[in-house]
């Protein structure tokens, strides 16, 4: 089944403790992206990748890192999480200029 | 500045009561407008892409239309299973970034 898989689905952590949210797609998509979704603010792009080893900042990249060493994987790294990074995170992928396929989200709470 | 505004924020309908959701946009050159459905606890699911004014797409009880300034998602004789948040997004020619609206939360009561 074609899908975007994120792990974990839920994560509670403390301020400053490094964490990684994994994202994997099995559709051979070149394009991958991370979004955060907050009430009243909608979906905002954090980082995106046009292809392997090519990444770029979205609208809200501060406090996040990504890497794209393989086509299928696009992990999101929070080196030192803070409470304002508490949010619902979505990974998405697509072929160029095609509709995005989204994962089912990771709900992160930073205390 | 490229912008997408959806209205209303929330819409409550009785089963069978047809209505429309609005997505107004300003973008410097539209490459495409996308409609997504998002159920609670899940990621957005693609519904339609519209590329040019006058274009229409249909799927079951949903019909999406596009003008130069806005898109409508018409829901005909909705059922409770149509309850979800509907998201609109536009992609500009320049840069190709997707800009999402804040969504319309639709509730259909039996």
Alpha-carbon Rg of chain B, integer: 13 Å
Q: Percentage of helical residues of chain A?
A: under 10%
Q: How many helices of chain B does DSSP assign?
A: 0
The assigned structural class of chain A equals mainly beta
Whole-number mean pLDDT of chain A: 95
How would you portray this structure in words?
The complex is a heterodimer of chains A (111) and B (110). Chain A is 0% helix and 51% strand. Chain A has strands spanning 4-7, 10-13, 19-25, 31-38, 42-51, 54-57, 65-66, 76-78, 87-94, 101-102, 106-110. In chain A, strands 2, 4, 5, 6, 9, 10 and 11 form a seven-stranded mixed β-sheet that branches. Chain A has a four-stranded antiparallel β-sheet with strand order 1-3-8-7, with no helix packed on it. The model of chain A has no long low-confidence stretch (mean pLDDT 95). By secondary structure, chain B is mainly beta. Helix content of chain B is 0%, strand content 60%. Chain B has strands spanning 3-7, 10-14, 19-26, 30-38, 45-50, 56-59, 62-66, 70-75, 84-92, 98-100, 104-109. In chain B, strands 2, 4, 5, 9, 10 and 11 form a six-stranded mixed β-sheet that branches. A five-stranded antiparallel β-sheet of chain B has the order 1-3-8-7-6, with no helix packed on it. In chain B, strand 7 (62-66) and strand 8 (70-75) form a beta hairpin. The interface between A and B is medium-sized, with 18 and 21 residues.
Keywords summarizing the entry:
heterodimer, A: 111 residues, mainly beta, seven-stranded mixed β-sheet, four-stranded antiparallel β-sheet, 11 strands, 0% helix, globular, B: 110 residues, six-stranded mixed β-sheet, five-stranded antiparallel β-sheet
Task: Give the helices and strands, then pairings.
The complex is a heterodimer of chains A (111) and B (110).
Chain A: E1 4-7, E2 10-13, E3 19-25, E4 31-38, E5 42-51, E6 54-57, E7 65-66, E8 76-78, E9 87-94, E10 101-102, E11 106-110
Parallel strand pairs in A: 2-11
Antiparallel strand pairs in A: 1-3, 3-8, 4-5, 4-9, 5-6, 7-8, 9-10, 9-11
Chain B: E1 3-7, E2 10-14, E3 19-26, E4 30-38, E5 45-50, E6 56-59, E7 62-66, E8 70-75, E9 84-92, E10 98-100, E11 104-109
Parallel strand pairs in B: 2-11
Antiparallel strand pairs in B: 1-3, 3-8, 4-5, 4-9, 6-7, 7-8, 9-10, 9-11
